[in-house]
């Protein structure tokens, strides 16, 4: 019996198994859908579908920079438990995804998931993730990536806490000598101080206006007279910039210097203007709402099941 793309798609939707595995199972089952499902279940490949609803908030953030420094990427691969995050195969998958993201031209996760997997051209990236879900028995999500181009500058990376926080930064300058040390310091700063922007000019106007409104309301609640409120608001906006803008932050190694001053000093020392062109900071699981399970209820569910 001829195996159609529609049949493969249906089996994928019903089992969550990879496309190639579905096609092989249907071929083996001579097109019998139920038999194909049994084949996949026997191989452990249909288990993934049952795990797709579980919250994956653990995992790793990983980086990759090509040997020539021309491209780099940061990725986040999530799983359900810290135990699986330390699994050798999970770590290897995260490293391969970082390399794939750096060398790919994909602009979104879905696009990258449909590419041929860098470590096995017979399967897609999605198949590789699904296959490991089935093997290790936990839901996994390739959540995000950010790619860097190292032309006209240098890329540096830093991973903190065994894969909890990953930073990548690009510096530009006319001369590369001495830049690695500066890039390392800036990466450490970003990991520790978590800036949202490089300069004041990058902060969107709507964000500034929202902060102004909050500070204005705070001053009113404090009973401050109208004539001093605007002055107070502007003072708090300047403090806000020092918290969220990289170059306005105090340098973690020397609180007498801002990052702007540190860069100015290094620029003079190295005889070239150094600029931070781009940075990204991924923290594992940030923004993912972790599901709080009632342990007693979970035990009862399993007992009843």
Automatic annotation (TrEMBL):
Pfam families, sorted: EF_TS (PF00889)
Gene3D superfamilies: 1.10.286.20, DNA helicase RuvA subunit, C-terminal domain (1.10.8.10), Elongation factor Ts, dimerisation domain (3.30.479.20)
Gene Ontology MF terms in the entry: translation elongation factor activity
Region Involved in Mg(2+) ion dislocation from EF-Tu, annotated ranges: 81-84
UniProt keyword terms in alphabetical order: Cytoplasm, Elongation factor, Protein biosynthesis
PROSITE patterns on file: EF_TS_1 (PS01126), EF_TS_2 (PS01127)
Translation elongation factor EFTs/EF1B dimerisation domain location: 72-286
Subcellular location: Cytoplasm
Record InterPro entries: EF-Ts_dimer_sf, Transl_elong_EFTs/EF1B, Transl_elong_EFTs/EF1B_dimer, Transl_elong_Ts_CS, UBA-like_sf
Source superkingdom: Bacteria
GO cellular component, one term: cytoplasm
Tagged with keyword Coiled coil: no
Similarity-based family: Belongs to the EF-Ts family.
Role, per record: Associates with the EF-Tu.GDP complex and induces the exchange of GDP to GTP. It remains bound to the aminoacyl-tRNA.EF-Tu.GTP complex up to the GTP hydrolysis stage on the ribosome.
The protein's name: Elongation factor Ts
Organism per entry: Fonticella tunisiensis
Taxonomic lineage of the native organism: Bacteria, Bacillati, Bacillota, Clostridia, Eubacteriales
């Amino acid at each position: 019996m001829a195996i159609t793309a529609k049949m493969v798609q249906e089996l994928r939707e019903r089992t969550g198994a990879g496309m190639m595995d579905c096609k092989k199972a249907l071929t083996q089952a001579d097109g019998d859908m139920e038999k194909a499902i049994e084949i996949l279940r026997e191989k452990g490949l249909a288990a993934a579908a049952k795990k797709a609803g579980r919250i994956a908030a653990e995992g790793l953030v990983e980086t990759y920079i090509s040997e020539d420094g021309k491209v780099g990427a940061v990725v986040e691969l999530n799983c359900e438990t810290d135990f699986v995050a330390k699994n050798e195969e999970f770590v290897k998958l995260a490293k391969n995804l970082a390399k794939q993201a750096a060398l790919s031209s994909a602009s979104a996760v879905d696009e990258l998931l449909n590419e041929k997997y860098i470590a096995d051209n017979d399967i897609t990236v999605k198949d590789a993730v699904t296959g490991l879900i089935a093997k290790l028995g936990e839901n996994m999500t390739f959540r995000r990536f950010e790619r860097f181009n190292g032309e006209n500058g240098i890329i540096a990376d830093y991973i903190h806490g065994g894969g909890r926080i990953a930073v990548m930064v690009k510096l530009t300058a006319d001369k590369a000598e001495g830049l690695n040390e500066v890039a390392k310091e800036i990466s450490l700063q970003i990991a520790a101080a978590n800036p949202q922007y490089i300069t004041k000019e990058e902060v969107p106007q709507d964000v500034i206006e929202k902060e102004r409104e909050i500070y204005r309301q705070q001053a009113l609640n404090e009973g401050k007279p109208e004539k001093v409120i605007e002055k107070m608001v502007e003072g708090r906006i300047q403090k806000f910039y020092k918290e969220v803008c990289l170059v306005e932050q105090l340098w973690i190694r020397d609180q007498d210097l801002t990052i702007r001053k540190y860069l100015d000093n290094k620029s003079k020392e190295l005889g070239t203007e150094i600029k931070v062109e781009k940075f990204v900071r991924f923290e594992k699981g940030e923004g993912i709402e972790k599901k709080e399970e009632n342990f007693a209820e979970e035990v009862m569910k399993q007992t009843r099941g």
